[in-house]
Amino acid sequence: MHFFDTHAHIGLLFDDPIKQYRAIKEAELAGVTRIVSINNSLHDFKKEYVLLKTKKGVFHAVGVSPAEVVAPGDDWRNIIEESVKLPKVVAIGETGLDYEKQYGDKRSQIELFISQLEMAQSLDKPVIIHNRGAGKDIYEILRDRIPPKGAVFHCYSENAAYAAQCLDAGLDVYFSFAGNLTYRNAQNLHETVLNIPIDRILIETESPFMVPAKYRGKRTMPSFLPATAEFLAQMVQMDLEALSAQLWTNSCRIFGLSESEEG
Question: Which phi and psi angles does 240 have, rounded to 5°?
Fold first, then answer.
């Protein structure tokens, strides 16, 4: 039985590379044998990629998050275009909109988001979407501009009706759930997983954030992912091994990876 962590900020776990490697090893021992590493900032990407490029099972996404909208740098497009050529870079992201933190202004965020959707199309990659309080605008933008390789709503925070709206519109989207799925008061997430196709569900740790209830008080680690899988299995009334196999298939499909353990 193996698990795929579709979203982890490995670079935020520890400054010490040895501790990062240890966290990856602990995840592997827990059955988490693939991880998509998300850069904290675009200009940290290359450093983190070099540190982790030899780690089996670690893949990468590269993008400009809404937090960087004020100063993404003049060369952000070139960095993404060059980075996508590297082995094991599987997605553009995270990108999207954040109206709760109020990074810059909405217009600037939207322009940055659309630009990266267009790049994902030209570079033939899926996108990983960050959404805080911006579901309506994200839906309307995706409806016209979703890249052919699809999109992941990471750390899904909307409700079942929103997910149904996206699927009914024919959008090639996946819904990734983090440790907050395990919270008793996360009724919108519980309702969502019970009302969307199982082949559209992913799980993630969002390390070092969104700790599962089982580990409250700790910083989330990739090795915590099975706790979210166990909770999800109980919710959808599936055997954990069968669920892990389905989630693995879903994750490999959206990121264009072989389901074999190689790489």
Answer: -60, -40
